[in-house]
Amino acid sequence: MEVGTRTVHILGVTTHPTAAWATQLARNLLADLDERASGFRYLLRDRDSRYAQAFDAVFTAAGIDILKTAPQAPKMNARVERFIRTARAECTDRMLSYNEQHARRVLAQYAEHYNTGRPHRALNLRAPADDPDVILFPAQRIQRHDVLSGLLHEYHSTA
């Protein structure tokens, strides 16, 4: 999660995560971010054994400092913990995932909803992908769009 913008990136889904898997996901994230990665100064992560030296080396090579959370201090990474709670309450606890591919598809769709259609109080009821320079006018008509087969709803104004 990008703390400043609240943008979420779902990196991967697996039943058996390993250090090599996590390191590859780190490489994939930096490749996806491309030149935007230079805007990041820190990566805050927990002390899980899956985050080996190779994982940290991927980010330090990009000029990103690694900060580890203190042991048994979940509030140090409160924004991510809150996202996980929200994703579970709004999405994954309300449906049955058939397999990894299905879970991956559902989480990708939820992340898209979270980044583009879900209002955030910390962002003045805007989504992370909204342009902060655009002033929204009251809409003449509101149209509902269902996400995740009707599990979530997004509302958009029409002219």
Could you describe the 3D structure shown?
The protein has one domain. 34% of the residues lie in helices and 14% in strands. It has helices at 19-33, 53-61, 78-90, 100-116; strands at residues 42-45, 65-68, 141-147, 152-158. It has a two-stranded parallel sheet. A two-stranded antiparallel sheet has the order 3-4. Helix 1 packs parallel to helix 2. 9% of the residues are buried.
How would you summarize what this structure contains?
The chain has 159 residues and is of the alpha+beta class. The protein contains four helices and four strands, in the order αβαβααββ.
Task: Please supply descriptive tags for the structure shown above.
about 160 residues; two-stranded parallel ribbon; single chain; two-stranded antiparallel sheet; 4 helices; alpha+beta; about 35% helix
Q: Overall 3D geometry?
A: globular
Number of alpha- plus pi-helical segments: 4
State the domain count: 1
Largest sheet: spatial strand order = 1-2
Mean pLDDT: 87
Share of helix among residues? 25-40%
- Write down how many β-strands occur, each being a DSSP E stretch of 2 or more residues: 4
Unreliable stretches (pLDDT < 50, length at least 5) are none
Structural class: alpha+beta
Biggest sheet, open or closed, and with what strands and sense?
A: 2 strands, parallel
Order of SSEs, N→C?
Answer: HEHEHHEE
How does the SSE layout of this entry go?
Elements: H1 19-33, E1 42-45, H2 53-61, E2 65-68, H3 78-90, H4 100-116, E3 141-147, E4 152-158
Parallel strand pairs: 1-2
Antiparallel strand pairs: 3-4
Helix pairs in contact: 1-2
